[in-house]
Design a protein that fits this description.
This protein has 16 helices and eight strands. It is mainly alpha-helical and about 350 residues long. The strands form three sheets. It has a three-stranded antiparallel sheet with strand order 3-4-5. A three-stranded antiparallel sheet has the order 6-7-8.
Length: about 350
C-alpha cells in the first residue's frame, strides 16, 4: 500500500504541494528567539501585501495590536505606504481605532466621557494624517487652542499624552511627538470644602447613599468611581478599614489595591456603613443630579470637581504632616503627587475642625 498524503497536502507530478486554507490570515505572528528584546515577529503575507513585510515586538499582545493596524493600513492605502513610510505611514485614525479597543473601552465614568470627547475632536483634526507626520508645533497649537482656559488645554494635553505614549510603546510610531509639546501652564488651586460647608452637607436630609458618599470621599479619600464599583462587603468593621480591591482602584500607576483606615469621623458613624448591595445603588446621572442639588442647598453654585478627595488630602496632610501616609491612604505611591495635584495649604486649626466633625 502506497503512502497516503494527509488531506492538507496534494501531489502535483513528483512534487508535494500544501493546500492553503481558502481564506488564510493576512499575517503570521510567531516567536523569534534571535531578537531577545523583541522576540515576537509579525509578518504580513506576500499574498496579502505583495511582499513579505516584517515587524518585531516585545510581546505577543503588542504584535496582535499592530497586526490589526497594519492590515487596515494596507487595505486603505496599499502596502507601498508601509514600505515607503514604514510606521510613519500609519494614520492617526487607524492607530486610534485600536487604542479605543484596547484602552478606552476599559475606562469608566467621567474618564470615559472625557476621553471619548477629546479623541473624537483629535481624529477630526488629524485623523487622515500619518501620526509621525504630525509636527510638535501643529499638535501644540491645537492643544493650546482648546477651550478658554489653560486648565482645559492641560486636560487635552494629558489625554493626547496617554494616546501617544501608548502608540510609541507598542512601536506603532517612530517618534513620541507629545514629549516635544509643552503643556498649557495652570495655576489653579485644588477645590476643597471648608469644615462649615462639610458640616452643612452632612446635616442635609438627603438619600442615605449620598450621605455615605460624602463620608467616604471626604473622610477616607475614596474616589466617586471607586464607590460605584464597590459593595458593602468591602467595609471591614473588624479591621476598621475599607478594602479597595483590584479592578476597583483607578488605573493611574499607583497601588493596584489598598486598605483604607477608618478616620475619627468615620469611627463616630460606623452604624451608617452597612448594607447588602452596592454602596451607590443608583445611576451616575442620578448621583450627580442629587449631589448638585445638595451643593446648591448649602450655598454652592455647583459641585466643585473632586472637592471631597482634595479636601481629604489637604486636611489629612495638615494634621499628620506626612505626605507618604496621606498618599498611601489615597492609593498613590508618590508623595509628590499629593503636593502637586491634591493638597492645598490649610491652617492646622482648620484641619482640627475638619477631623472633629
Amino acid at each position: 500500500m502506497g503512502f497516503v498524503f494527509p488531506n492538507k497536502w496534494a501531489t502535483v507530478g513528483y512534487r508535494v504541494t500544501r493546500i492553503m486554507p481558502a481564506n488564510p490570515s493576512p499575517y503570521i505572528i510567531s516567536p523569534y528567539a534571535s531578537r531577545p528584546s523583541t522576540p515576537w515577529k509579525l509578518e504580513l503575507r506576500a499574498s496579502f501585501a505583495g511582499k513579505r513585510i516584517k515587524r518585531y515586538f516585545a510581546t505577543k499582545t503588542e504584535a496582535e495590536a499592530a497586526a490589526a493596524i497594519l492590515v487596515s493600513q494596507v487595505q486603505m492605502h496599499g502596502s507601498q505606504s508601509l514600505l515607503e513610510q514604514k510606521p510613519a505611514g500609519i494614520s492617526l485614525s487607524a492607530v486610534l481605532a485600536t487604542y479605543r479597543q484596547h484602552k478606552v473601552s476599559s475606562m469608566t465614568g467621567g474618564h470615559l466621557e472625557t476621553a471619548t470627547y477629546i479623541y473624537r475632536l483629535l481624529e477630526a483634526k488629524f485623523g487622515t494624517m500619518a501620526m509621525d507626520s504630525i509636527t510638535p508645533l501643529e499638535l501644540e497649537r491645537w492643544i493650546h487652542s482648546r477651550g478658554s482656559s489653560p486648565t482645559t488645554g492641560a486636560c487635552y494635553y494629558r489625554y493626547c499624552r496617554m494616546f501617544w505614549r501608548w502608540a510609541y510603546k507598542k512601536q506603532l510610531v517612530e517618534q513620541n511627538t507629545i514629549e516635544r509639546v509643552d503643556s498649557p501652564i495652570t495655576i489653579s488651586r485644588p477645590n476643597i470644602l471648608s469644615p462649615a460647608q462639610m458640616r452643612a452637607l452632612l446635616a442635609l436630609d438627603c438619600p442615605r447613599w449620598l450621605n455615605v458618599a460624602f463620608l467616604l470621599c471626604g473622610f477616607m479619600g475614596l474616589r466617586t468611581e471607586e464607590l460605584f464599583r464597590m459593595d458593602w462587603s468591602a467595609v471591614l468593621h473588624d479591621e476598621q478599614s475599607i478594602h479597595v480591591k483590584r479592578g476597583v482602584q483607578k488605573n493611574a500607576g499607583g497601588w493596584a489595591e489598598r486598605y483604607v483606615d477608618f478616620t475619627d469621623p468615620i469611627l463616630r458613624r460606623t452604624e451608617k456603613l452597612g448594607g447588602s448591595k452596592s454602596i451607590i445603588p443608583v445611576s451616575l446621572f442620578t448621583f450627580r443630579r442629587e449631589r448638585t442639588a445638595a451643593a446648591k442647598t448649602v450655598g454652592l453654585q455647583s459641585w466643585p470637581a473632586n472637592c471631597l478627595r482634595h479636601s481629604f488630602a489637604s486636611y489629612h496632610l495638615a494634621l499628620h504632616g506626612d505626605a507618604g501616609k496621606t498618599g498611601h491612604q489615597m492609593g498613590h505611591t508618590s508623595s509628590a503627587m499629593v503636593y502637586r495635584t491634591y493638597a492645598q495649604a490649610v491652617r492646622k486649626s482648620e484641619a482640627t475642625a475638619w477631623w472633629a466633625l
